[in-house]
Structure formats: structure tokens, C-alpha cells
Amino acid sequence: MRIVVGLSGGVDSSVAAYILKQQGHDVIGLFMRNWHDTTGTLEGDCPWYDDQMFAELVAKRLDIPFHYVDLSQEYRARVVEYMFAEYERGRTPNPDVLCNREIKFDVFLKEALKLGAEAVATGHYCRRTESVVDGRKVYSLLAGSDPNKDQSYFLCQLSQEQLRYAMFPVGEMLKPEVRRIAEQQHLATAKRKDSQGICFVGKVDLPIFLQQKLAAKQGNVHEILPSCRRLVRDISPDDYKSLSEPYAFTVRDGKKIGTHNGAHFYTIGQRKGLGIGGRKESLFVVATDIDQNVIYVGEGDSHPALYRRALKIRPEEVHWIDPEESMQIGQRRRYSVRIRYRQPLQQAELIADTDGLYILFDEPQRGIAAGQFAAWYDGDRLVGSGVIDR
Length: 390
Description:
The chain is an alpha/beta fold. About 25% of the residues lie in helices and about 30% in strands. The protein folds into three domains: about 1-210, Rossmann fold, CATH 3.40.50.620; about 215-305, SH3 type barrels (Roll); about 310-385, Translation factors (Elongation Factor Tu (Ef-tu), domain 3, Beta Barrel).
């Protein structure tokens, strides 16, 4: 089978290519450059250059063809512009999820097909299975075997058509085993650190990065005390709609304790970047008001404004890996849910209502942020996901 591997310059995709070649496949390495601007980048002037160099070294070592494609125009239009738009609205997007849906398994996939690919492989720590349900072939996305590296959350928006072509050769492996194979095969990426930060952009100073499009604007920081009257809610534990409403504050609810350079640069649950010290416990962002350009903070990780038991996803933002599993209005189902990468799965009930899909957690969740993705699982199978509206 001819398989195009997305060689990223990292150890995971390198070992994925090695495994596929050992299995006898016709393997082609394809490196994609998705970003040119270094504004706000914290590590190196040209991080992509090093990535490409390592990818080429691996391809030479494995004796496989190496190709290069520039997808920066599509990446800016589909991922970065989306990021800017979401932050401008006071929301917190996840560019890595968008990158997988819009770039790696869409634009990149089409480039791979031009090379005659029958499948596309990446170094993601997740698994894909095929089954026949009522006479139709169904592709499922499963968590990676390494619980410390499972990356299924980042692929939560993939469709059946995208999964049809996808292969994840290291999904059954543990990270130390991947490193060991890379060292044994003398791959240049064997000891290279895992990439961090925004997909294809790298680690950035987020406010500086966002100031490419979003202007800095000084505003005030107000502290909300745990005794604030707005934190007292007389809501039934089953009233999922009311429980999904975020806390809303005004400047009269808290004392001004500092200033900031733009409310759209901050997200719920954020601790770093406030520049306000001298406290027994750290301050956390508990709410933002983009219109008034105000940030509300609370002291301590247990501040009540950080926690909610429910969230809402708009109907058009609900995605099912297998559309046949979608819920009908009035249905309720139990799933395990996470609202951010690496968060342990949380037990919850999904409720399909006329105005959207609600997720009612058994326990209050910290830092629910609009714009992020909630993903729900049945065991280790990722069933669906959606963008958090509130």
C-alpha cells in the first residue's frame, strides 16, 4: 500500500514511517510548512527550518522519498484567522483541533492523494478501527494505548471520510518504546524534544502574537471575593440550562486591584500573565467582559467562580464521529467527557435539547471556557465533540 507519512521533524512521525516501511508499505515522507511569521515566537527565529531539516534527515535514513508542500495560505485562512476571530470575541479556541480537521486531514490529505496515497499516516498517539454496522463500514477513533500521551482529543473533529484514510502507527505504543526504536535505528529525531505551543507556530507570547490583529487596550482588573452575592445560586441540581450559565459580574461586584492590556488576551482559569503578586494564593481569571474590557479574578484554585456543573454546545457545533450515533431532541445519554487535553475523563450526562446539546457533569468542572472543545467517550472510543458555547 502506498502511504504518505506526515513527517513533522519529530520522533513520533519518524518512527511511524519506520514501522510502515518495515511492514512492507510503499512509504513517502511529506513535510508541510504552515507558518512563516515569527511574531511572538519564543524559541528560535525559524522553528520550521529545523523541523524540515530533521524530517529530511529521517527520510534519508529510512531511504524513502521526501516531498515538501507549503500550506501556509490555507493554514492562515482556516486556523489562524479563526483564532484571531475567537479571541476577539472573548473566547478560547483550540487551534490544534482545527489544524487536524482543516489542514492535516483535509488540505494535506489532498496533497497526499496527488502523490498516489492510499492512506495518510501521522505520529498521533491514538488508534483507528474498522467495523461493519448494519451493512456499512464504520471507522472509530480510539484513545492511544499510552495514557500519558493519548492525543485522541486533538482529533475529535475528524469525520468518517477523514478516518477512512487515516493511519496511526504508534497508537498502540508507549512513548519510551518509540524513543527506543528511534535510537536503535539511529534516527536524527531520537532525542529531539516534543513540540509545544500552537500547532506549526510553536511556543509564543500569546498577547504579542495576537497583537498582529488585536490591538492592546488597557483595562482594569477587579477581584471577586468568595462572599460575592452573585456566587450564590439557588438552582436545582437537575436544571442543566441554568447550571450552564457562566457567572456574570460588574465592576461594582469587586475591587479594582490592577490593570491589563486587553481582556481578549485572557481566558477563564488563567493564572500566568496577570502581574499581580503579594497573595497567599495565586490569582485566577474567573470571568472576562470584552465589551467593558474588564478582567475579573479570584484568589485560589478553589474559588467558586472557577467551577460549573454544566455547559452548552450550539446545535450546529455538535459533531459525531459516526453521524448515525447522533442524539435526537429529548434524548439523554451517559458518557465520559473531557473539556481540555490531558484532563482525566469526567462522568457526565449529555442532554439533547431544542437549543443545543447540554453536558451535565456529576462533579463541578474547573475553567469551562467558551471556544474550547468538549469531547465525549464511550470507554476508550471517542464518540463526538463540540465547541463550548458557554
